[in-house]
User: What shape does this take?
Amino acid sequence: MTTIDRRGFARLAGLGAVGSLVGAVPPAPASASPVSPARGLAAPSLDTCLEVARDLLLVDERDRDLKLKYLRVLIDEGLPKTRSPKKVLVVGAGIAGLVAATLLKRAGHQVTVIEANGNRIGGRIKTFRSGFADPAQYAEAGAMRIPDFHPLTLALVDKLGIPRRPFYNVDVRPGAVATGPVPPVVYTARDGHVWRSGPVKGRFEAPKRLNHTWIRVNGIIQRRDEYAADPRKINASFGLKDRRTTAQILDEALDPVRDHISVVRGSERVDKPLPELIKGWARVLREFDGYSMYNFLSGHAKLSDAAIDAIGTVENLTSRLPLAFMHTFLTRSLVNPAATYWELAGGSRLLPYRLEPGLRGEIRMDRRAVRITTSKSGVRIDTVSEKGSDESSSAPQRPAESFHGDVAIITIPFPALRHVEIAPALSYAKRRAIIELHYDSATKVLLEFSKRWWEFDEEDWKRELGPRYRPGRATHVMGGGSVADNANRFTYYPSHRVPGSEGGVVLASYVWADDAARWDSMDDRERYSYALRNLREVHGDRVAEFYTGHGQTQSWLRNRYAFGEAAVFTPGQMTEIHPAIPVPEGRLHFAGEHTSLKHAWIEGSLESAVRAALEVNA
Assistant: This one.
């Protein structure tokens, strides 16, 4: 009998499966996305790696900073006024489609936005505004935070007049407030040019970070700061004899790869000069794009299974270990741990809905694209009406409208595009990308509580419970998140109170990939009782005293229009598939986070929207 050990299984799990074809896209070749180190195929060419490196850094072939260019188009100047207006069809009213349409309309083009959803715009920017006992409460189904190193997003938020406030990625003291005015958006281009969205009006300072939330694994519970001070107890529960935290072990494993692109100065890493930086990223891509995260940690970094288990659990990486090393490396290398994160007061949905008035006459709801036909004379998009939403079963489809234009911008996710007939057929490289690009799943389970128990100290618990009080573990934080090895995996606490409300909504479970699949098989109501049980394991049974019986949940894999959370590469896809994804095909242009290299972020969608608008306006 042939057996496969765990490492062999992980290598097989990293292979990207090629499914059967739907619609006009022909079958892909038998060779799917490879894994390394024994990828069985030649390494990507240096030219390909240099091209992807430039795309990653957002610099063109002449080393000009495209982010700066996009900021000037999106925020300052808009597109040049056109002398030859086009009829532009935009498929999808997510943030990429809305921004591209807005820019093109202001430049003088005639735009039509075609949206399948019958009841909302925004795509994966979605805020729950109902379903809670307290009508004042709301919570995010999708995008919930914006880091300060995403200048396009923050500058657009400010330009639209949407109030933003700190999102505490790391917990702070309950009742703590930031001091000073919200700072302007600042971007330093590759050539040293500094772009600002406005003047500095004072010094902004966020509250001190506590790291007081919980780690609960293998029956052991500690606060994060306790683990940082002495990680031996939790590490030993995995069979790991190491005095370093899992974050330190992971960072030290990644440092030799970082050395290709940055140098250490004092206590910080600093990017190498641009020519060296581009070549460094190209070397990283050529050597490591074929690795899954598990292959890298076990085969390249030579970490033990115990170390990988501990890293996966504590750093919330277990479910993505079979996916591309580059995804995790980008996250850990391009994200400044000292960054400030922001949220939109009133909900992330404000961002797409602030754009809607400028396009109200151009957005066609309840129009699902089923066929795209291009010819010498233009583009035709046939749609059907479903009278449904992204959460409800559709009514029987019936033909709706056919839209005609000179060009089209396709912003819907590739899994959705796979169900659209396209004639004539797209290029082989594009068809392969549509078939193979991996989309990850992500699921949230949110629970409403009548009191903000996560902010309580023990005296608060005594006061609230009275004679029912029993000693327990008071969390006593605002914002931040806890991690556990139960099905909830990651829990986030609200960063701010909702005015006029004593309660709040906890993101009880936020999970990806296989961790999300454990929830996706349940119906919505069923998830709430299990999420509450898992919260009680970490915080104690007494938290159930304040559960209102209400909640909301979002499975992006089960969403009828999203088909997943976001694009997340499997090994090899960054160099094999990505180069073809953003490239126009005749009259068809492509935008959306999946066409950028900032997957799952609004910033990536905005980069792609400006790029596609520039292409059409050229």
Q: What stands out?
A: The longest strand covers residues 504-512. The chain has 20 helices and 27 strands.
